[in-house]
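User: Show me a protein chain along with its predicted structure.
Assistant: Here is one chain, sequence first, then C-alpha coordinates.
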Amino acid sequence: MRRIQTTVDPKAPAFRDNAARMQAVVTDFKALQERVRHERPQRDIERLRRQNKLLARERLDLLLDPGTPFLELSSIAAYDQFNGEAPGANVISGIGVVNGREVMIHADDSSNKGGAWYPLSAPKIVRALEIAIENRLPVVHLCDSAGGYLEDLSGVYVMGGRVFRHQCILSKMGVPQVAVVLGHCTAGGAYVPALCEHTIMVRGTGAVFLGGPPLVKAATGEEVTVEALGGADMHTTVSGTADYAVDSEAEAIARARELIGGFSQPRKHFDWAEAEAPHYDPRELYGILPVDYKQQFDMREVIARMVDGSRFQEYQPGYGVTLVCGWARLWGCKVGILGNNGVLFSDSSLKAAHFIQICNQLGTPMIFLQNTTGYMIGRQYEEGGITKDGAKMLMAQAGSEVPKFTVVTSGAFGAGYYGMCGRSWDPRLIFSWPQAKMGVMGPEQAGNTLADVKLRQLRRERPDAGDEEVAELRRRTHEKSERETSALWFSARMQDDGVLDPLDTRNALGIALSCAANRPVAEPRYGVFRM
Protein backbone atom coordinates (compact mmCIF):
# COMPACT_ATOMS: atom_id res chain seq x y z
CA MET A 1 0.00 0.00 0.00
CA ARG A 2 1.22 3.49 -0.83
CA ARG A 3 1.37 6.31 1.66
CA ILE A 4 -1.16 9.07 0.95
CA GLN A 5 0.62 12.26 -0.07
CA THR A 6 -0.92 15.09 1.89
CA THR A 7 -1.50 18.56 0.50
CA VAL A 8 -2.46 20.03 3.87
CA ASP A 9 -0.55 23.08 5.11
CA PRO A 10 -0.98 23.40 8.91
CA LYS A 11 0.25 27.01 8.71
CA ALA A 12 -2.44 28.10 6.23
CA PRO A 13 -5.05 30.56 7.59
CA ALA A 14 -7.96 28.33 6.52
CA PHE A 15 -6.42 25.38 8.35
CA ARG A 16 -5.93 27.39 11.53
CA ASP A 17 -9.46 28.78 11.34
CA ASN A 18 -10.91 25.30 10.92
CA ALA A 19 -8.81 24.00 13.81
CA ALA A 20 -9.96 26.74 16.16
CA ARG A 21 -13.63 26.32 15.26
CA MET A 22 -13.51 22.54 15.46
CA GLN A 23 -11.75 22.69 18.82
CA ALA A 24 -14.57 24.90 20.12
CA VAL A 25 -17.20 22.43 18.88
CA VAL A 26 -15.40 19.47 20.48
CA THR A 27 -14.90 21.38 23.75
CA ASP A 28 -18.62 22.17 23.93
CA PHE A 29 -19.52 18.54 23.21
CA LYS A 30 -17.18 17.22 25.88
CA ALA A 31 -18.60 19.67 28.42
CA LEU A 32 -22.10 18.37 27.61
CA GLN A 33 -20.90 14.78 27.86
CA GLU A 34 -19.33 15.46 31.26
CA ARG A 35 -22.58 16.97 32.56
CA VAL A 36 -24.59 13.97 31.38
CA ARG A 37 -22.10 11.55 32.88
CA HIS A 38 -21.49 13.15 36.25
CA GLU A 39 -23.93 15.91 37.27
CA ARG A 40 -26.51 14.45 39.67
CA PRO A 41 -28.68 15.88 42.44
CA GLN A 42 -26.70 15.88 45.69
CA ARG A 43 -29.64 14.33 47.54
CA ASP A 44 -29.48 11.28 45.25
CA ILE A 45 -25.75 10.85 45.76
CA GLU A 46 -26.24 11.11 49.54
CA ARG A 47 -29.04 8.54 49.35
CA LEU A 48 -26.76 6.03 47.64
CA ARG A 49 -24.00 6.64 50.18
CA ARG A 50 -26.45 5.98 53.03
CA GLN A 51 -27.32 2.68 51.35
CA ASN A 52 -23.61 1.76 51.09
CA LYS A 53 -23.89 1.82 47.32
CA LEU A 54 -21.31 2.91 44.79
CA LEU A 55 -22.09 5.23 41.88
CA ALA A 56 -22.47 3.47 38.54
CA ARG A 57 -19.13 4.72 37.21
CA GLU A 58 -17.36 3.70 40.41
CA ARG A 59 -18.69 0.20 39.78
CA LEU A 60 -17.27 0.33 36.26
CA ASP A 61 -13.87 1.28 37.65
CA LEU A 62 -13.89 -1.89 39.77
CA LEU A 63 -15.13 -4.08 36.93
CA LEU A 64 -12.85 -3.01 34.06
CA ASP A 65 -9.20 -4.02 33.72
CA PRO A 66 -7.02 -1.06 34.75
CA GLY A 67 -5.55 0.90 31.87
CA THR A 68 -7.83 -0.62 29.22
CA PRO A 69 -10.19 1.42 27.02
CA PHE A 70 -13.95 1.58 27.54
CA LEU A 71 -15.98 2.39 24.42
CA GLU A 72 -19.09 4.03 25.87
CA LEU A 73 -22.18 3.96 23.65
CA SER A 74 -24.83 6.68 23.32
CA SER A 75 -23.30 8.70 26.14
CA ILE A 76 -25.64 11.69 25.64
CA ALA A 77 -28.86 9.72 25.14
CA ALA A 78 -31.94 11.63 26.36
CA TYR A 79 -29.91 14.61 27.53
CA ASP A 80 -32.49 17.07 26.17
CA GLN A 81 -35.64 15.08 27.00
CA PHE A 82 -37.83 14.17 29.97
CA ASN A 83 -37.08 17.52 31.64
CA GLY A 84 -33.50 16.42 32.14
CA GLU A 85 -34.61 13.64 34.50
CA ALA A 86 -32.87 10.77 32.68
CA PRO A 87 -29.33 11.79 31.65
CA GLY A 88 -27.87 9.04 29.49
CA ALA A 89 -31.33 7.42 29.69
CA ASN A 90 -30.33 6.32 33.23
CA VAL A 91 -28.18 3.60 31.66
CA ILE A 92 -24.47 3.25 30.91
CA SER A 93 -23.57 0.86 28.12
CA GLY A 94 -20.34 0.10 26.35
CA ILE A 95 -17.60 -2.33 25.41
CA GLY A 96 -14.76 -2.93 27.84
CA VAL A 97 -12.15 -5.48 28.89
CA VAL A 98 -12.80 -7.55 32.01
CA ASN A 99 -10.17 -10.04 33.13
CA GLY A 100 -8.72 -10.02 29.63
CA ARG A 101 -12.04 -10.62 27.86
CA GLU A 102 -13.97 -8.15 25.68
CA VAL A 103 -17.50 -7.78 27.07
CA MET A 104 -20.59 -5.65 26.64
CA ILE A 105 -21.64 -3.85 29.80
CA HIS A 106 -25.11 -2.65 30.77
CA ALA A 107 -25.12 -0.70 34.01
CA ASP A 108 -28.21 0.91 35.51
CA ASP A 109 -27.49 4.39 36.86
CA SER A 110 -29.41 4.67 40.11
CA SER A 111 -28.02 8.12 40.92
CA ASN A 112 -31.03 9.66 39.19
CA LYS A 113 -34.66 8.69 39.85
CA GLY A 114 -33.42 5.41 41.29
CA GLY A 115 -32.30 4.25 37.86
CA ALA A 116 -35.88 4.04 36.59
CA TRP A 117 -36.24 2.97 32.98
CA TYR A 118 -37.51 5.87 30.87
CA PRO A 119 -38.76 5.43 27.26
CA LEU A 120 -35.17 5.56 25.92
CA SER A 121 -33.65 3.31 28.60
CA ALA A 122 -34.89 0.03 27.16
CA PRO A 123 -33.90 0.96 23.57
CA LYS A 124 -30.40 1.78 24.83
CA ILE A 125 -30.13 -1.63 26.51
CA VAL A 126 -31.64 -3.33 23.46
CA ARG A 127 -29.04 -1.71 21.21
CA ALA A 128 -26.23 -2.86 23.51
CA LEU A 129 -27.57 -6.42 23.37
CA GLU A 130 -27.91 -6.24 19.57
CA ILE A 131 -24.23 -5.37 19.37
CA ALA A 132 -23.44 -8.24 21.74
CA ILE A 133 -25.42 -10.63 19.53
CA GLU A 134 -23.77 -9.44 16.31
CA ASN A 135 -20.28 -9.66 17.78
CA ARG A 136 -20.69 -12.60 20.18
CA LEU A 137 -19.78 -10.51 23.21
CA PRO A 138 -20.47 -11.80 26.73
CA VAL A 139 -22.63 -9.35 28.68
CA VAL A 140 -22.31 -8.02 32.22
CA HIS A 141 -25.48 -6.52 33.70
CA LEU A 142 -24.94 -4.25 36.73
CA CYS A 143 -28.54 -4.19 37.95
CA ASP A 144 -29.89 -1.39 40.13
CA SER A 145 -33.15 0.06 38.84
CA ALA A 146 -36.40 1.27 40.32
CA GLY A 147 -38.18 -0.35 37.35
CA GLY A 148 -40.25 1.24 34.62
CA TYR A 149 -40.92 4.97 34.94
CA LEU A 150 -44.48 4.96 36.26
CA GLU A 151 -45.59 8.12 34.46
CA ASP A 152 -44.77 6.63 31.04
CA LEU A 153 -44.98 2.85 31.35
CA SER A 154 -46.41 2.54 27.85
CA GLY A 155 -43.15 3.97 26.50
CA VAL A 156 -41.15 1.26 28.27
CA TYR A 157 -43.37 -1.79 27.95
CA VAL A 158 -42.76 -3.08 24.39
CA MET A 159 -39.02 -2.39 24.16
CA GLY A 160 -38.57 -3.72 27.68
CA GLY A 161 -39.72 -7.08 26.39
CA ARG A 162 -37.13 -6.83 23.63
CA VAL A 163 -34.40 -6.67 26.29
CA PHE A 164 -35.46 -10.06 27.63
CA ARG A 165 -35.84 -11.54 24.14
CA HIS A 166 -32.29 -10.52 23.25
CA GLN A 167 -31.03 -12.10 26.47
CA CYS A 168 -32.64 -15.37 25.41
CA ILE A 169 -31.04 -15.15 21.96
CA LEU A 170 -27.60 -14.63 23.50
CA SER A 171 -28.08 -17.71 25.67
CA LYS A 172 -29.25 -19.71 22.64
CA MET A 173 -26.05 -18.68 20.84
CA GLY A 174 -23.93 -19.87 23.75
CA VAL A 175 -22.84 -16.34 24.71
CA PRO A 176 -22.75 -16.10 28.52
CA GLN A 177 -24.18 -13.30 30.64
CA VAL A 178 -23.43 -12.30 34.22
CA ALA A 179 -25.86 -10.32 36.36
CA VAL A 180 -24.62 -8.45 39.42
CA VAL A 181 -27.67 -7.48 41.46
CA LEU A 182 -26.68 -4.36 43.38
CA GLY A 183 -30.16 -2.91 43.94
CA HIS A 184 -33.76 -3.79 43.22
CA CYS A 185 -34.80 -5.69 40.08
CA THR A 186 -38.55 -5.26 40.06
CA ALA A 187 -41.38 -6.41 37.79
CA GLY A 188 -40.08 -7.05 34.27
CA GLY A 189 -36.60 -6.06 35.43
CA ALA A 190 -36.52 -9.24 37.51
CA TYR A 191 -36.06 -11.19 34.31
CA VAL A 192 -32.67 -9.59 33.61
CA PRO A 193 -30.86 -11.63 36.31
CA ALA A 194 -33.17 -14.62 35.87
CA LEU A 195 -32.16 -14.91 32.20
CA CYS A 196 -28.42 -14.82 32.90
CA GLU A 197 -26.16 -17.87 33.19
CA HIS A 198 -24.55 -16.41 36.32
CA THR A 199 -26.22 -14.21 38.95
CA ILE A 200 -24.56 -12.59 41.95
CA MET A 201 -26.55 -10.72 44.61
CA VAL A 202 -25.47 -8.31 47.35
CA ARG A 203 -27.05 -8.93 50.72
CA GLY A 204 -29.05 -6.04 52.13
CA THR A 205 -29.33 -4.02 48.92
CA GLY A 206 -29.86 -6.51 46.10
CA ALA A 207 -33.39 -7.82 45.55
CA VAL A 208 -35.29 -9.57 42.78
CA PHE A 209 -39.10 -9.83 42.65
CA LEU A 210 -41.95 -9.49 40.19
CA GLY A 211 -43.80 -7.28 42.65
CA GLY A 212 -42.30 -5.47 45.64
CA PRO A 213 -43.77 -5.56 49.18
CA PRO A 214 -46.21 -2.64 48.58
CA LEU A 215 -47.62 -4.26 45.43
CA VAL A 216 -47.85 -7.67 47.10
CA LYS A 217 -49.83 -6.17 49.98
CA ALA A 218 -52.11 -4.24 47.63
CA ALA A 219 -52.73 -7.29 45.44
CA THR A 220 -52.92 -10.09 47.99
CA GLY A 221 -52.95 -8.52 51.44
CA GLU A 222 -49.74 -10.34 52.36
CA GLU A 223 -47.18 -8.38 54.37
CA VAL A 224 -43.60 -9.36 53.66
CA THR A 225 -40.15 -7.78 53.94
CA VAL A 226 -37.86 -7.08 51.02
CA GLU A 227 -35.33 -9.69 52.18
CA ALA A 228 -37.92 -12.40 52.69
CA LEU A 229 -39.60 -11.66 49.37
CA GLY A 230 -36.57 -11.32 47.11
CA GLY A 231 -33.32 -10.93 49.03
CA ALA A 232 -29.97 -12.52 48.26
CA ASP A 233 -30.14 -15.31 50.83
CA MET A 234 -33.66 -16.34 49.84
CA HIS A 235 -32.82 -16.50 46.15
CA THR A 236 -29.53 -18.39 46.65
CA THR A 237 -30.87 -20.94 49.18
CA VAL A 238 -34.60 -21.28 48.51
CA SER A 239 -35.70 -20.21 45.02
CA GLY A 240 -32.46 -20.87 43.10
CA THR A 241 -32.97 -17.66 41.12
CA ALA A 242 -29.42 -16.51 41.96
CA ASP A 243 -26.12 -18.32 42.38
CA TYR A 244 -23.97 -16.34 44.80
CA ALA A 245 -24.77 -14.12 47.81
CA VAL A 246 -22.04 -11.69 48.86
CA ASP A 247 -21.72 -8.95 51.45
CA SER A 248 -20.49 -5.97 49.43
CA GLU A 249 -20.48 -4.49 45.97
CA ALA A 250 -16.71 -4.86 45.74
CA GLU A 251 -17.00 -8.59 46.50
CA ALA A 252 -19.80 -8.97 43.95
CA ILE A 253 -17.82 -7.31 41.19
CA ALA A 254 -14.70 -9.31 42.08
CA ARG A 255 -16.77 -12.50 41.75
CA ALA A 256 -18.04 -11.33 38.36
CA ARG A 257 -14.46 -10.70 37.20
CA GLU A 258 -13.51 -14.19 38.36
CA LEU A 259 -16.35 -15.77 36.40
CA ILE A 260 -15.57 -13.81 33.24
CA GLY A 261 -11.92 -14.86 33.49
CA GLY A 262 -13.11 -18.43 32.96
CA PHE A 263 -14.88 -17.64 29.67
CA SER A 264 -13.12 -18.98 26.57
CA GLN A 265 -11.39 -16.53 24.23
CA PRO A 266 -12.82 -16.51 20.70
CA ARG A 267 -10.69 -17.12 17.64
CA LYS A 268 -10.14 -13.86 15.79
CA HIS A 269 -11.06 -13.66 12.11
CA PHE A 270 -10.05 -11.19 9.33
CA ASP A 271 -6.60 -10.30 8.04
CA TRP A 272 -4.40 -8.93 10.84
CA ALA A 273 -0.85 -7.56 10.86
CA GLU A 274 1.22 -5.60 13.35
CA ALA A 275 -0.41 -2.24 14.06
CA GLU A 276 1.28 1.01 13.08
CA ALA A 277 0.43 4.59 14.03
CA PRO A 278 -0.65 6.99 11.26
CA HIS A 279 2.29 8.71 9.57
CA TYR A 280 0.51 12.07 9.76
CA ASP A 281 -0.55 13.70 13.01
CA PRO A 282 -4.22 12.84 13.78
CA ARG A 283 -4.56 16.21 15.53
CA GLU A 284 -4.47 17.78 12.07
CA LEU A 285 -8.02 16.47 11.58
CA TYR A 286 -9.29 19.58 13.38
CA GLY A 287 -7.73 21.81 10.73
CA ILE A 288 -8.89 19.65 7.82
CA LEU A 289 -12.53 19.47 8.89
CA PRO A 290 -14.70 22.54 8.31
CA VAL A 291 -17.43 23.11 10.88
CA ASP A 292 -19.75 24.17 8.04
CA TYR A 293 -20.88 21.02 6.23
CA LYS A 294 -21.27 23.00 3.00
CA GLN A 295 -17.47 23.41 2.75
CA GLN A 296 -15.87 20.47 0.96
CA PHE A 297 -12.71 18.65 2.05
CA ASP A 298 -10.74 15.71 0.63
CA MET A 299 -11.66 12.50 2.46
CA ARG A 300 -8.20 11.10 1.65
CA GLU A 301 -6.75 13.61 4.11
CA VAL A 302 -9.03 12.20 6.81
CA ILE A 303 -8.12 8.62 5.92
CA ALA A 304 -4.42 9.53 6.06
CA ARG A 305 -4.77 10.52 9.73
CA MET A 306 -6.71 7.43 10.78
CA VAL A 307 -5.14 4.39 9.13
CA ASP A 308 -1.89 2.55 9.83
CA GLY A 309 1.12 4.29 8.35
CA SER A 310 -1.25 6.58 6.42
CA ARG A 311 -1.09 3.91 3.68
CA PHE A 312 -4.01 3.40 1.32
CA GLN A 313 -4.48 1.21 -1.74
CA GLU A 314 -7.05 3.19 -3.70
CA TYR A 315 -9.52 1.38 -5.96
CA GLN A 316 -10.45 2.95 -9.33
CA PRO A 317 -8.95 6.35 -8.46
CA GLY A 318 -9.89 7.81 -11.85
CA TYR A 319 -13.51 6.60 -11.94
CA GLY A 320 -16.47 7.78 -9.89
CA VAL A 321 -14.20 10.36 -8.28
CA THR A 322 -16.85 11.67 -5.85
CA LEU A 323 -16.45 8.40 -3.91
CA VAL A 324 -13.05 7.33 -2.58
CA CYS A 325 -12.69 3.55 -2.20
CA GLY A 326 -9.71 1.45 -1.20
CA TRP A 327 -7.98 -0.75 1.33
CA ALA A 328 -5.94 0.11 4.40
CA ARG A 329 -5.09 -1.30 7.80
CA LEU A 330 -6.47 0.07 11.03
CA TRP A 331 -4.85 -1.20 14.23
CA GLY A 332 -3.44 -3.97 12.04
CA CYS A 333 -6.78 -5.10 10.60
CA LYS A 334 -7.25 -4.91 6.83
CA VAL A 335 -10.37 -2.86 6.03
CA GLY A 336 -12.16 -1.57 2.97
CA ILE A 337 -12.95 2.15 3.16
CA LEU A 338 -15.65 4.08 1.29
CA GLY A 339 -15.51 7.84 1.78
CA ASN A 340 -17.54 10.57 0.10
CA ASN A 341 -15.91 13.39 -1.82
CA GLY A 342 -19.23 14.90 -2.85
CA VAL A 343 -22.58 13.94 -4.33
CA LEU A 344 -23.13 10.34 -5.51
CA PHE A 345 -23.41 10.00 -9.30
CA SER A 346 -24.11 6.85 -11.33
CA ASP A 347 -20.41 6.09 -11.73
CA SER A 348 -19.64 6.48 -8.03
CA SER A 349 -22.69 4.35 -7.15
CA LEU A 350 -21.55 1.57 -9.50
CA LYS A 351 -18.03 1.83 -8.13
CA ALA A 352 -19.39 1.42 -4.59
CA ALA A 353 -21.48 -1.62 -5.52
CA HIS A 354 -18.50 -3.35 -7.15
CA PHE A 355 -16.14 -2.47 -4.29
CA ILE A 356 -18.62 -3.81 -1.70
CA GLN A 357 -18.79 -7.10 -3.60
CA ILE A 358 -14.99 -7.35 -3.69
CA CYS A 359 -14.75 -6.71 0.08
CA ASN A 360 -17.25 -9.51 0.64
CA GLN A 361 -15.30 -11.82 -1.66
CA LEU A 362 -12.16 -11.11 0.40
CA GLY A 363 -13.95 -11.23 3.78
CA THR A 364 -12.76 -7.69 4.51
CA PRO A 365 -14.79 -5.48 6.90
CA MET A 366 -15.82 -2.06 5.59
CA ILE A 367 -15.74 1.45 7.02
CA PHE A 368 -18.06 4.10 5.55
CA LEU A 369 -17.00 7.73 6.02
CA GLN A 370 -20.07 9.81 5.24
CA ASN A 371 -20.05 13.31 3.77
CA THR A 372 -22.61 13.61 0.99
CA THR A 373 -25.68 15.59 0.00
CA GLY A 374 -27.12 12.39 -1.50
CA TYR A 375 -27.62 11.03 -5.01
CA MET A 376 -27.59 13.48 -7.94
CA ILE A 377 -31.00 14.60 -9.23
CA GLY A 378 -32.22 16.04 -12.52
CA ARG A 379 -33.47 14.90 -15.93
CA GLN A 380 -30.02 14.16 -17.35
CA TYR A 381 -29.13 11.96 -14.40
CA GLU A 382 -32.46 10.13 -14.35
CA GLU A 383 -32.07 9.36 -18.03
CA GLY A 384 -28.60 8.10 -17.22
CA GLY A 385 -30.00 5.67 -14.63
CA ILE A 386 -29.07 7.32 -11.33
CA THR A 387 -32.02 5.72 -9.53
CA LYS A 388 -31.26 2.17 -10.63
CA ASP A 389 -27.52 2.67 -10.12
CA GLY A 390 -28.12 3.97 -6.62
CA ALA A 391 -30.34 0.92 -6.10
CA LYS A 392 -27.43 -1.34 -7.10
CA MET A 393 -25.35 0.27 -4.34
CA LEU A 394 -28.14 -0.38 -1.84
CA MET A 395 -28.61 -3.97 -3.04
CA ALA A 396 -24.89 -4.71 -2.73
CA GLN A 397 -24.86 -3.28 0.75
CA ALA A 398 -27.93 -5.23 1.88
CA GLY A 399 -26.42 -8.48 0.59
CA SER A 400 -23.13 -7.78 2.32
CA GLU A 401 -22.09 -10.12 5.14
CA VAL A 402 -18.81 -8.57 6.22
CA PRO A 403 -19.06 -6.22 9.21
CA LYS A 404 -19.76 -2.60 8.33
CA PHE A 405 -18.93 0.47 10.44
CA THR A 406 -20.04 4.03 9.74
CA VAL A 407 -18.78 7.45 10.76
CA VAL A 408 -20.81 10.55 9.86
CA THR A 409 -17.95 12.99 9.41
CA SER A 410 -19.83 16.07 8.15
CA GLY A 411 -23.05 16.21 6.11
CA ALA A 412 -25.21 13.14 5.40
CA PHE A 413 -28.46 13.83 3.60
CA GLY A 414 -31.18 12.12 1.63
CA ALA A 415 -30.74 8.60 0.33
CA GLY A 416 -26.98 9.14 0.38
CA TYR A 417 -27.19 8.49 4.12
CA TYR A 418 -28.75 5.12 3.31
CA GLY A 419 -26.33 4.23 0.53
CA MET A 420 -23.38 5.02 2.80
CA CYS A 421 -24.66 2.60 5.45
CA GLY A 422 -26.80 4.77 7.71
CA ARG A 423 -28.38 3.42 10.87
CA SER A 424 -31.23 1.64 9.06
CA TRP A 425 -28.69 -0.38 7.02
CA ASP A 426 -27.31 -2.27 10.01
CA PRO A 427 -23.74 -1.14 10.52
CA ARG A 428 -22.23 -3.00 13.46
CA LEU A 429 -21.60 0.46 14.96
CA ILE A 430 -22.33 3.97 13.70
CA PHE A 431 -20.77 7.11 15.15
CA SER A 432 -21.06 10.83 14.42
CA TRP A 433 -18.62 13.69 14.77
CA PRO A 434 -19.97 16.58 16.85
CA GLN A 435 -20.29 19.14 14.04
CA ALA A 436 -22.04 16.71 11.67
CA LYS A 437 -25.47 17.27 10.15
CA MET A 438 -27.88 14.67 8.79
CA GLY A 439 -31.45 14.45 7.58
CA VAL A 440 -33.76 14.11 4.60
CA MET A 441 -32.31 17.37 3.32
CA GLY A 442 -29.97 20.11 4.54
CA PRO A 443 -31.17 22.39 7.33
CA GLU A 444 -31.45 25.41 5.01
CA GLN A 445 -33.59 23.55 2.48
CA ALA A 446 -35.68 21.95 5.21
CA GLY A 447 -36.10 25.26 7.03
CA ASN A 448 -37.10 27.17 3.88
CA THR A 449 -39.56 24.47 2.81
CA LEU A 450 -41.18 24.26 6.23
CA ALA A 451 -41.26 28.04 6.60
CA ASP A 452 -43.01 28.43 3.24
CA VAL A 453 -45.66 25.90 4.27
CA LYS A 454 -46.23 27.62 7.61
CA LEU A 455 -46.35 31.06 5.98
CA ARG A 456 -49.07 29.94 3.60
CA GLN A 457 -51.04 28.65 6.59
CA LEU A 458 -50.50 31.94 8.41
CA ARG A 459 -51.64 34.02 5.42
CA ARG A 460 -54.82 31.97 5.13
CA GLU A 461 -55.63 32.29 8.81
CA ARG A 462 -54.46 35.90 9.32
CA PRO A 463 -53.98 37.86 6.08
CA ASP A 464 -52.96 40.94 8.06
CA ALA A 465 -49.94 39.30 9.76
CA GLY A 466 -47.10 41.83 9.93
CA ASP A 467 -43.51 41.57 8.74
CA GLU A 468 -42.18 41.08 12.28
CA GLU A 469 -44.46 38.08 12.85
CA VAL A 470 -43.44 36.59 9.52
CA ALA A 471 -39.75 37.10 10.32
CA GLU A 472 -40.19 35.50 13.74
CA LEU A 473 -41.89 32.48 12.18
CA ARG A 474 -39.02 32.07 9.73
CA ARG A 475 -36.47 32.38 12.54
CA ARG A 476 -38.14 29.71 14.69
CA THR A 477 -38.51 27.37 11.74
CA HIS A 478 -34.86 27.68 10.75
CA GLU A 479 -33.71 27.19 14.35
CA LYS A 480 -35.79 24.02 14.53
CA SER A 481 -34.26 22.71 11.30
CA GLU A 482 -30.72 23.47 12.48
CA ARG A 483 -31.36 21.80 15.83
CA GLU A 484 -33.06 18.69 14.44
CA THR A 485 -30.39 17.96 11.84
CA SER A 486 -27.52 18.14 14.34
CA ALA A 487 -25.50 15.12 15.43
CA LEU A 488 -26.29 15.90 19.08
CA TRP A 489 -30.04 15.85 18.42
CA PHE A 490 -29.81 12.53 16.57
CA SER A 491 -27.56 10.97 19.19
CA ALA A 492 -29.82 12.04 22.05
CA ARG A 493 -32.56 10.02 20.34
CA MET A 494 -30.42 6.92 19.84
CA GLN A 495 -30.10 7.36 16.07
CA ASP A 496 -26.40 6.52 16.29
CA ASP A 497 -24.16 4.72 18.78
CA GLY A 498 -22.57 7.89 20.04
CA VAL A 499 -20.84 11.14 19.18
CA LEU A 500 -17.05 10.93 19.00
CA ASP A 501 -14.24 13.42 19.13
CA PRO A 502 -12.62 12.89 15.70
CA LEU A 503 -9.34 12.15 17.51
CA ASP A 504 -10.97 9.18 19.28
CA THR A 505 -12.32 7.60 16.09
CA ARG A 506 -9.32 5.42 15.26
CA ASN A 507 -9.42 3.84 18.72
CA ALA A 508 -13.19 3.36 18.64
CA LEU A 509 -13.00 1.63 15.26
CA GLY A 510 -10.12 -0.50 16.51
CA ILE A 511 -12.24 -1.77 19.40
CA ALA A 512 -15.17 -2.33 17.04
CA LEU A 513 -13.05 -4.36 14.62
CA SER A 514 -11.61 -6.49 17.40
CA CYS A 515 -15.11 -7.32 18.62
CA ALA A 516 -16.43 -8.00 15.11
CA ALA A 517 -13.58 -10.46 14.54
CA ASN A 518 -15.17 -12.78 17.12
CA ARG A 519 -17.41 -14.41 14.52
CA PRO A 520 -16.72 -15.76 11.02
CA VAL A 521 -18.15 -14.05 7.95
CA ALA A 522 -20.99 -15.78 6.11
CA GLU A 523 -21.22 -15.99 2.34
CA PRO A 524 -22.96 -12.93 0.82
CA ARG A 525 -26.22 -13.44 -1.02
CA TYR A 526 -27.46 -10.65 -3.24
CA GLY A 527 -30.90 -9.84 -4.56
CA VAL A 528 -31.67 -8.78 -8.11
CA PHE A 529 -29.54 -5.96 -9.56
CA ARG A 530 -31.62 -3.94 -12.02
CA MET A 531 -29.41 -3.68 -15.09
